[in-house]
## 1
Amino acid sequence: MASLPHSRRLSAVASHLVAAAAPAAAAAAAAAAGKDELPSTGGAAIMRANVQQRAGPKTEADVRVELAAAYRFIDHIGWGDGINNHITASIPGQPDEYLINSYGMGFDEVTASSLVKIDVTGNVLNPGTMGGAVNLAGFNIHGAIHRADPSAICVVHTHEVHTAAVASMKCGFLPGLSQHSLLCGEVAHHPYAPTTGRGGEEECNQMATNLLEAFPARIMLLENHGVVTVGETIADAMFRLWYVTKAAEIQVTTLQSVGLEGAIQVTSEDTLRRMSKGGQFFLSGNVADAEFAHNMRVVDRFNPGYNDL
Ligand SMILES: [Zn+2]
């Protein structure tokens, strides 16, 4: 496709969308029959089809490369926190085993081979090329979520300032403030408690339980702390992080500008429900895959070298 003239590429994309929109009739029929409809029947039908067409399990090597790229992308856009925070992804076919960054490396330095493979009880199975140090808070938070919910293939945790700020607002996350927040759908909250030291492990187990019980929420704001997103793929979890972080930035900017009283919010229950439903497809499908492929191309341009297998 890269060799096609621009106009031809647009035509090819349009043809794809027309073809994929065929199930829209089925969605419209479902809506007419009183079933749960989505906000845009054409777009929703495309998302639904894409979810069904996604690729199956990948190899550990594939996951290592994608995960290293995810670390470097978060660093590239300025959402990292030095050597802290973590992104983890479980091994295909081995939901009790997952990969985590070697503690002490910056997000900009993570490589596929340096990732440490541990199990959900904390045993180091493969120390990677940098010695296998694992941050205890990282293990407590991510291990608890991977243990509690094997469908959470990828767990992303950041301290990005806007999400941390919104997590600490008494008004909480405002779901009707922006299109980004509408698409996030349900966002869980979890009260602050230390994640290490006395009671840290129990606290993280409770955090994982709260997230699981908040399903279909796949995003959780940690009060006075940051955010966690999970996904059935690295792409899903990263795309949710993108949306919740953008929504948080919009919320902080709006409240700084006009305050809570001056903010216009979508309050229609029907619109909130429909957009949340649509977001579930939008944030877990081929759009997420396409966005993550773009993330990897960005890393390839600005910070290559992560794929060292
Ligand atoms: Zn943290």
## 2
Amino acid sequence: MSVSKIQAVISSKCPRCRTGKMFTGTAYGLSRQKMHDHCPHCGFKFEIEPGYFYAAMYVSYALSVGEVLCMALLTAMITKSESPWMYIGVLFTTILIFAPFNYRYSRLILLHYLSPKVSYNPKYAALKK
Ligand SMILES: [Zn+2]
């Protein structure tokens, strides 16, 4: 069974084996989501080097800008408001609502697409635990 890269990102799987889950819980569950230090399936260490996930801030920033722009345009089209307080309220709420999503997917995008040292290896997917 082969999992595509985009399926692995959407289902929060390890970039090396695409089988083990990177996070405990769901992005919007009642319990706080937490990232595993190592892949529970293949043992891959997600934080490749100390401070590696600082780079995820840039990905998170890009995601936030996209979300905020979409919400600003939607707000302008739906309400036709010119009040800055309307936009400040909507955009601040958008940032808060998308924070758990951005936390999770910025790290996933960083590891799956922007880390040249990390690549999928079917040998690890076939490991039996
Ligand atoms: Zn793995």
